[in-house]
Amino acid sequence: MERAYFDGFTVDLHGNIRIPELGTLNVLGFTTEEIEKLITQKLLEEQFKETANIFVTVKLTGLRFTTYGEIGGKGTQTIYKERVNIFEAIANAGDIPDTGDKKNVMIVRQYPQGQKIHYIDLTDVNVMQSPYYYVQPNDMIYVKPLKQKSWGTGTTALQNLGAVATILSLVTTTILLVNRI
User: Fold this and answer.
1) What is the pTM of this model?
2) Which of the four CATH numbers 3.30.1950.10, 3.60.21.10, 3.30.70.1150, 3.30.70.20 does domain 2-46 have?
3) Rounded CA separation 171/81 (Å)
């Protein structure tokens, strides 16, 4: 068990942890606190007496998530913290450029019964009260592009105005030249 203190145990794709002397424990869908209780209970039942003062700590060794869409760094990201909010995750991935829609960020979250899609508005101060504010292991964060990007007019209001002015100038010049002929 001494090695486990330094190395830890890996949760496999099916949510199982193999711990020497205890065997395999399924922790799919459990919080870290619930896993601590489960391991403590199993240790007391099989290895120690009730009077033993055992102390079990369960920590995430790294939080993995995937980013894609209009975001600086696409792909799987890992942050070595136990708790990461959506802003830290996005900053770690290279931030959202001006062409990304911060008002409609999609989070695909894994649950024991399957995946669910959630949307959050990063410009709303109430995002901090959202149950999706903190990133969970294996979350997928998708930032949609703004409509301006698909139109190719620009990323800011000034660039959009410049694009419209250029088009109007071209149309006006064409009409004046055609009328002179």
Assistant:
1) 0.60
2) 3.30.1950.10
3) 56
Q: Render the burial of 7-45: b for 16+ CB within 10 Å, e for the rest.
A: eebebeeeeebeeeeeeebebeebeeeebbebbeebbee
What digits encode the pLDDT tens for the residues 30-48? 888 888 888 888 888 877 7
In the chain, where are the structural domains located?
Answer: 2-46, 63-145, 154-180
**CB 70: neighbour CB atoms within 10 A?**
19
Calpha distance 161→181 (Å, rounded): 30
DSSP H helical segments within 101-181, as ranges?
A: 147-151, 157-180
CA 41, CA 99: separation in Å to the nearest integer? 51
**Dist CA 177 CA 179 (whole Å):** 5
The second-level CATH assignment, the architecture, of 63-145 is Roll (3.10)
User: What are the tens digits of pLDDT across the range 42-80?
Assistant: 888 877 776 677 778 787 777 889 999 999 888 998 888
